Fold:
Amino acid sequence: MHWTQLPVPGFIRRRIRGRGFMQLRILDRDLRRSHPSWTRVLADAPRYWAALRSSAPGRPKVLLATVTGGDIRSTRVESLLAAALTLRDAEVHVLLCDASMPACALCNSDLYPDEEQFAKTGPVPLHCAACFEPARDLYASMGVAVHRYSELVTAEAAAEAARIAATIDLADVASYTHDGVTVGEHAYAGALRYFARGTLRDDATSEVVLRRYLEAALRTRAATDRLLGDGGFEATVSHHGIYVPHGVVGEVSRRRGVRVVDWDVAYRKGRFLFSHNDTYHHTLMDEPTEAWEDIPWTAARDRELDDYLRSRWSGTNDWVSFNRQPELALDAISAETGVDFSKPVVGMLTNVMWDAQLHYPANAFPGMLDWALRTIEYFATRPELELVIRVHPAELTGFIRSKQFFVDAVVDAFPTLPSNVHVIGPESRISTYVLAEQCNAVLIYGTKTGVELSAAGIPVVVAGEAWVRNKGITEDARSADDYFAILDRLPYPARLPPPVVERARRYAYHFFFRRMIPIGVADELLSKVIGYEWPFAGIGALEPGADRGLDVICDGILRGTPFVYPAEEMSPVAS
Structure:
């Protein structure tokens, strides 16, 4: 998941999708009107200003690596953190790019649909100015120290970045490291995100864009390394923790021995995911099970979980949802899909192919598409089973529309599908949840839906980086051979046994209620884009003790404590 998959920024979706450079002037105007002013909140805040001027010994120094200030949500959230951390006696600094990167995470082929032109020029000056200047002014109004790329990247470092990006063998980009920093992985992921593809085309435009992202990654490495090398930072805070620039900031921070905190908007409204040391895409897979196994479990808590999981079917309590009017009638689903529900049915859930393309050592296959195509080949040999593939709706409904579609890749590989294999396209309103309830088992690669399905007692087989992996709940394939050996055991004789279901429900509660941390003042934080003002009257709402979720987040940033919200202390405990 990424913030750009949220449905919030309708003004950007309506005004720039498919219209290109002519729309950047509108984008420039709207971005400048989208950053709320801290002036009203801080007008009478002596506690804040006293903390800002403090030079007490041992005061922790925190870098908020906003970098792309035009990322409206990130700037709002991180300016909120800047105020909250200052009130907790931290010395807060901010890093911003001031038109120094030749490509970044704010560029995509919807905003710049003329890919050849983007390859030649990169982001236009108007876009970069609208990204940097309002964010600079926002943080300046808070009295926070702002560091610019142009002040940190020396002429020598810039020349070296350009030279390396221009001369490196293209095949070596994705694995390229510079001074111990794995810049290439994030550059490659950034280029995939720009094109909204799971693989790059073999053409000159793709090569130039990839090299742009590598140069941007190298400039980010140089800027971050110099800033952190000047010393004293306790932690860096970055949005998402992957792509260019934020993934590179994390790599440099770890190499420098500076604690890394990565965050993103969570599914649930008003909630956020934070993780230590690495992007949550990695850390949630390896989180110690001791963090949630012994959560006190009651019937009331079980009902609380059920209520939320049921709301997920239409996303009524979520910021992130891709199918808000699902088709729930089984007869209609059967008619649309042609699935023979009298046979054992195995479900398969895909991912958006371009999203978060990182290296995961535990994956049984080199990529999601390879996994899917080999699975189809396997089921061609198992006519007694039905395989129904649900393509992720975000291919069409995500903020960045995919340019490489799963269905097309399947048709290329299988002009005629096996008769027992059925593909439900991203445009379908079929409810994934109703479909899964009819399945003997569900196969997943990286989708988070595995958390919900296992909590409903449905057996789940994991072949990739799904967060439900390693929890003692799912069948986790460690290799392709292991995966196919698991499939050989299908169909399963029954649903998950009750002890496993209870374990799965404890984890689901931990995932949705404890790891997704609420901030009370964030209920409206991302709801309005233009003309936004903070939904609180004064700085007191951010003081220590005023908001339990904000306390958990700030304590984690400043002291390294777990980013776990004690929801069990707030929720019903009666049986």
